[in-house]
Each structure stands twice: as structure tokens, then as C-alpha cells.
Amino acid sequence: MVDRLIEQRAAVSHVLTTSVFDVDNLTPDEWTTVIKLMSTLRPLLDVTQELSHTSYPLLSTIIPTITGVCHALRTSTEGVDALRDVLLQLLNDTFADVFSDDELCAATVVGLLSYCFYLHCSLSVKHVQDSYSTGIGIVVFNVQLDIL
């Protein structure tokens, strides 16, 4: 929605300046903030769109999805830093228990193995590492997929 606002910036500015209502047009600084807001929220949009396209999101996608969003927010240099920090804290508060759930971790590994079986490739887990840089215990799998 924010990207459409930016896309239609000229039209929005025109309507705001010619409106019969007493509504001020957005300043250049406010437009810059809108663009930064869009950059900050992009990882959440990407995940939402990806999960919306699947007929039935699988349990095995929860940990990789949360990990991916956290990674994208942590490594991004664009956008609103304060909002990014708040989003990371909210993800940590909401999903901290997910990474200590043995059944969910097992479902993630089994889902990955099933996917590899479906693609006719072999999977070898080279290394497992715990990372607590954001307060969320993230299991990182370095895997090698060999097409059979």
C-alpha cells in the first residue's frame, strides 16, 4: 500500500493541494519518511506475499520464515532504524519460544528433508550453530544439496 502511495505521489500531491478541505500536502521530508517506511517494512511484505501464495503454509516454514525476516531486518541499512529495532523486539517477544520447541525444530528438519527427497537431492548437514545476537535462539543449518 505504501509503495502505491509513492508510485502515485504526483497525483496525491495534486489532490491534497487542490482539495476543498484544509489538508496540507506532504513535505519533502515526509515523503522521504514514507519511502524509508516502505524500505523498513519490505521484509514483512515479502513474507506475507510468499505465505499468501501457498495453499497451506507448512509448520516446517515457521522457523526459516522468522529467521529470514529477522536477518533481513538486522542486515538492512535502509529505512527507519527505530522502527526496525521495534520490529525486531516485537518478533523476539512474540516468537522467542518457537526456537526452543523441539517438535517445531524437528518439523523444520523433516520438512527440509522431505523437500530434498521431493527434488531428488541429497542433504548433508555440515554444521549446526546457535546464534543469540538478537535474543532469539536461531538454529542455522549450513547444508549442501547434491542433485542426484
Describe this structure in words.
The protein has one domain. The radius of gyration is 21 Å and the shape is elongated. The protein has a two-stranded antiparallel sheet. The model is unreliable at 125-148 (pLDDT under 50). By secondary structure, it is an alpha+beta fold. The chain has helices at residues 2-7, 9-18, 28-53, 62-75, 81-95, 102-118, and strands at residues 121-131, 138-147. Helix 3 packs antiparallel against helix 4 (62-75) and helix 4 (62-75) runs antiparallel to helix 5.
Number of helices: 6
**Care to count the β-strands?**
2
Strand order in the largest sheet: 1-2
Low-confidence stretches: 125-148
Number of domains: 1
Using the alpha-carbon principal axes, give the shape: elongated
Q: What helical percentage do the residues reach?
A: 55-70%
Mean pLDDT over the full residue set: 76
β-strand amount: 5-15%
Rg: 21 Å
What is the CA-CA span between the terminal residues?
Answer: 43 Å
Order of helices and strands: HHHHHHEE
The chain-level structural class is alpha+beta
Major sheet description: 2 strands, antiparallel
Q: Key terms for this structure?
A:
148 residues; alpha+beta; 6 helices; 2 strands; 59% helix; disordered C terminus
SSE blueprint and pairings:
Blueprint: H1 2-7, H2 9-18, H3 28-53, H4 62-75, H5 81-95, H6 102-118, E1 121-131, E2 138-147
Antiparallel strand pairs: 1-2
Helix pairs in contact: 3-4, 4-5
Can you give me a brief rundown of this structure?
This protein has helices at about 1-5, 10-20, 30-55, 60-75, 80-95, 100-120, and strands at about 120-130, 140-145. With about 150 residues, it is an alpha+beta fold.
